[in-house]
Amino acid sequence: MGLARELRRHARAAIAPFFCVVAIAYFGVHYVQGDRGLIAYLRLSEQVASAEQRLAVLRSERERVEHRVGLLKPDRLDRDLLEERARAVLGYAAKNEVVLFDRAAR
């Protein structure tokens, strides 16, 4: 009986630390692999960086297009750009000209 009582006493003393270790392990796993854990945070950070790079490319492209549109405004018309666009849209060319179309420029 002394041995059984001693085992029960040690078991009661070990219950609280056991549940604390289990709780820490549970929260630790979710801290790393959960829906809002470290792995999800790193994945989201990569997506944000990729989106910011794409945004920078689109902004530069927009600035380029806005500049070209600005050159076609009536108060500061660029005749060369106007002629270029008229030829591209309407398909005009002089008899002695050779026209090469660049699909990327459209």
* Residue-averaged pLDDT: 87
Give the low-confidence spans.
Answer: none
Oligomer: single chain
How many helices does DSSP assign?
Answer: 3
Q: Main sheet?
A: none
**How far apart are the first and last residues' alpha carbons, in Å?**
93 Å
What is the H/E string?
HHH
Q: What would you call the shape?
A: rod-shaped
The radius of gyration is: 35 Å
**What percentage of amino acids are in beta strands?**
under 5%
The number of distinct β-strands equals: 0
Helix content: over 70%
Structural class: mainly alpha
Question: Could you characterize the architecture of this molecule?
Answer:
With 106 residues, the chain is an all-alpha fold. The protein has a domain at 51-106. 73% of the residues lie in helices and 0% in strands. It has helices spanning 2-33, 38-70, 79-90. The longest helix has 33 residues, at 38-70. The radius of gyration is 35 Å and the shape is rod-shaped.
